[in-house]
Specification:
homodimer, about 220 residues, Jelly Rolls, Arc Repressor Mutant, subunit A, 4-stranded antiparallel sheet, about 40% helix, DNA-binding
Chain lengths: ~220, ~220
Amino acid sequence: MSYDPQLLDSASHRLIAALRGKAIFHQGDPASALYRVEHGCVRLQIGDAAGSRQVIAFVFAGQTFCAGMETHWASAHAITDTVLSRFPHVALWDLVARDSRAALNLLLSADELLTDLAHHLGRMSHSDAYERITWFVDWVAKQTKAPPGGTLDIPMSRHDIADFLGIAPETVSRLFRRMESTGRLRRVAPRRFSYHPSAAACIAVQTEVGDQAAA
Amino acid sequence: MSYDPQLLDSASHRLIAALRGKAIFHQGDPASALYRVEHGCVRLQIGDAAGSRQVIAFVFAGQTFCAGMETHWASAHAITDTVLSRFPHVALWDLVARDSRAALNLLLSADELLTDLAHHLGRMSHSDAYERITWFVDWVAKQTKAPPGGTLDIPMSRHDIADFLGIAPETVSRLFRRMESTGRLRRVAPRRFSYHPSAAACIAVQTEVGDQAAA
DNA sequence: CGGCGATTTGAATTACATCAATCTAGGTGG
DNA sequence: CCACCTAGATTGATGTAATTCAAATCGCCG
């Protein structure tokens, strides 16, 4: 028994588009719907009074998201040009009344986000910056179904990645460079790489030897 | 419209006791109930393969908790001798069928934990260790309704606090010492303090002057 | 009283942030 | 179509908060 996004299709909804960088909803605004990403990528974030920003999650095609039942506890922004399905709350209650599986489905999807967040919290504490970046790249590859050896698009800015992983943008930049030197990534365009997950360990050793020779 | 823990009382449940240090459930075990802390304090945590531990939340009297609908994504342990109400899932579904408010109540409580976790994530990234500790102490004071100027019990170990805030136990110890030097806390027994939240800023300045004189 | 885990303290190290200066790509207007 | 322009990205140098390792101390419980 697991989460089934297709179940939502029988609820009333409409497609909406959001251009790159545009807000889908703002932290503090009243919440009235649940969303599913059909195409593109969305960023969920909270901001505090001091102006600092925490990116809570990136949502790729196929995933649903919301942030609060009554008031949005986070903002949502389109990272790329994005197409969304919007399911108003009333349509969801209607669906739940017609199909009891839907209620369980909603609870399971909420639980899924909770689990993700809990594990992300653990990663923030117990992993160093390089481990976080490598995890992040592998995670994006999985979300976008990028094949090993193929092309990997990482559509968000270095700043977004930094605010997600809790490190400085400069450090993100440096660690991407490090991943390239291990052969795990090769840059083919800005925010686009070729992805070689297996190349990590062995080439790292070669590079160390090379570094010593250079020094 | 907000969360109402009392609504649960009309669901079938029984009281259970957990001695200090005992597990209430384990990460990975099948989940079959929701719990409410009647007396004492509970720790929710996840552990990874490497043996490192992330404390997700501390739950005080009056709060409900669970970790997953089907499988527990975290373990729960009693920090002090604890009394719990256990609400089996079947009793909850029964309640939901009788009282439609209950379903919304469950969703709201899940959302509350999600919000807490999101803000905790932000704190871990954007606050330094001392800010985290002061926040934590103030938070425990609020949870346990400790009055300013009165006694504050902080029942969890330094290690638990460290794994919650993502810092080393030694650092926790040093920062508690720092809070004592500002007058915000005075130690009256192990894990028991007298609590002076307003004393923070002004006495901190006095201490700096004193430090300079001593140096 | 003795033992053992929890806590505290100290000294040395380091990973990361910060500050500041380029560099690059993509969009815009002439 | 090209030159500019600006936000994002990169790179280097420097500082520091917090970890780590190690040792002493405390407090609880048998």
